User: Fold these one by one.
Assistant:
Number 1:
Amino acid sequence: MVDNGLKKRRNSLDIAKGIGILLVVWGHAYGPQSDIIGQFHMPLFFFISGMLFDDKGKISDYIKRKVSSLLIPFWRWNLLLFPLFYVLYYWKHWTVRGFIIGISEIVFTVNKVPFLGATWFLPALFWTSIFWKVILELMPDNKWNDFVTLIIGGGVWRLLDLRMISHIESAEL
């Protein structure tokens, strides 16, 4: 751990984030085995975010902090660049209705925006963080919290029908 004057940093997490970034670039560049890398490079970032999860403080302060660090950058860049993208991409086929729908999808963080697609991670991490903050606030503090959290996570995984493991098995080796 390194003391930077504010908080102690965990070098191993910085290294893991660096490896994750390289894996994202590799996967998006369609390097060898990128189909396998694509199965875990984003879950790696969620896992690291979970390791850095700070559930201290009031939920309202936590939400404000997450809006500021995750949603504001998402909104800023997507709303700034969307008009340019929309006019260029839908050059002769654009409509006011389609433009308003696109803006609404950005504001309400629904669907994956097509032009800054990598930014889907920011609202996904926001909603995941808020979900777990609420769950942890509602849970009494006891020795079973980790087990209950694991069960809830597995239930959400199943509810959303996430099939990462089956995709790994079918990936081209």
Note: Residues 164-173 have pLDDT under 50 and may be disordered.
Number 2:
Amino acid sequence: MDPRAARPGLVVRRDDLREAVREGREGNLVLFVVDASGSMAARKRMGAVKGAVLSLLLDAYQRRDKIGMITFRGSGAELALPPTSSVEAGAARLAQLPTGGRTPLSEGLLRAHEVLRVERMRDPSRRPLLVVVTDGRATGGPDPLGRAHRAAGLLAGGASRRWWWTARRGRCGWGWPGSWPGARRHRRHPRRAARGQRLRARTDRAGQARPRRQQCRPGPGSRSRQQGEGRVMPQGQPSVVPDDGLTTRQRRNRPLVLVHTGRGKGKSTAAFGLALRAWNQGWPVGVFQFVKSAKWKVGEERALKVLGATGEGGTVDWHKMGEGWSWVQRDSQFSNEEAAREGWEQVKRDLAAETYRLLVLDEFAYPMKWGWVDVDEVVSVLRERPGAQHVVITGRDAPEALLDFADLVTDMTKVKHPMDAGQKGQRGIEW
């Protein structure tokens, strides 16, 4: 036998084996949870959020990242942009985003929890990053703040890294779910803290005022907040600080009773102006017109009804006593006194149910003056009203008991009026 036949022709050792291994950079899933309620839309914050999402999408392909966005408004939340790295798909989805209504913060957080759970099963190696953008005003449904806390607790148990951004003017808060909805403490970003230390170090020894906290990211056309320039509106300072045991924030957010009285023009006009501000904040508004005829065409009524139906701000309900009120059907003999009492009964029901954030009781001073509605009962109901409901009452000769109880009283004084010269009311001024 040939001795070479006994030896193996090929010997394969362990170090001769080769295996193809694909290596790539770890990708992120950046999921935005964005407040699309009326208060956010009123401050035009959605444009900044869209710009941030599109900017991240431009870098997503090179970084192997995916970007997604959830919006919450009204009574629910929706996945406005499913996780993607396509700029074209993202731009198409973000072109039209509906806004307006209340702030269902808990629904937004729960939807984020579900999206992250599904994406984790699809790609366990992808690192999730959650960014919540809101002004922190959790509204809608029973115990909205408690439900938001519980939803945040579910996210706290996940493996995602979470950031909480309170989109309030002059403040950026960030942190972990333990400091989420309703928390009053905000941890400053390390860079901002370092900058604050440098600014304090530069303060001279003469005792000059230190620079105040700046905005997180000045937007286009933003103004300087230095004293004497750039003020959009004067910042009033209280002359006294009461010893009532409340913090500055608690005292500032205390609901108010406002009375516009006097012989001059502008009482209802000023009240409807406050209703516009409330709509802009996303608050539900209720207007109750006592005494004035239903045939009168009030310009503010049409404007506020149109705005309330847009979904951009708060809702607006407008009721006229002359129409027999919208919630009751009576015959033609239904007197003004009965109508005023029925209107006040509905106001009490709405106050107890916290239907509105702002109630305008237009010309309500007259039913109290004429004895149709008991003044002491009105004061008692307003004193015991729950929640954070602001109430505006207009009309001449407001009772003294109401003036003593109110937080703000304005006496409209007539100095000069066109009617004194024989000129009647005109379109665009009186209606």
Note: Residues 168-189, 202-232, 324-333 have pLDDT under 50 and may be disordered.
